[in-house]
Task: structure prediction
Amino acid sequence: MFILLFLIWLLFNNYYAWDVYFLEIVLFGLGVCALVYLFMIKFTRFNFKRDIRFCKKFPLLVLYFIILLKEIIVSNIKVLSIIINPKDKPSPEIVSFNVDLKTHFMRTLIANSITLTPGTITISLQRDKLIVHCLKKKFIDGFENSTLVRIAKRIEA
Result:
C-alpha cells in the first residue's frame, strides 16, 4: 500500500525531470506517504501483514485478469460466430455447478467473471453453487476445473 500511495503522490505531482526539485518532491512524498501509511495502520483495520499478503498474491491477481481478458476475447469470437453463421443456432441452457472456493469474495469474483464473458450470465450464487445461463452448453462446460478457478484457489490458499 505504501508503494501505491507513493506512486499516486508522484502521479499527482506530475513532475518528472531529474533535478533537485524532483528529489525534493520524492523525499517529501516519502515522508507524507509514510505518515499516511502509519495513520492507516493505527486507526483503521489495515495492517502490515495483510499488506505483505496482498503483495505476494498480486502477481496471481494480474495473471487472473490476463486470463479473464483472453477468455472474454475468445467468448466474443464464439458469440460472433453464432451471430454471423445462420447454421450455428444458439441452444440456451441453464447450468448449475459447484465451485469449492472458501471466501465469498472469490466466489463473487468468479460469478462476475462468468457474467463478463459474452454468452454467459450468472443467475444465482448460493454458497458454492452457481447457476449460469449460457447460449450454448459448450460455453460453460468444464468451467469448475478451468484455469480461472484454479488461480482463484491459489489466491485463496
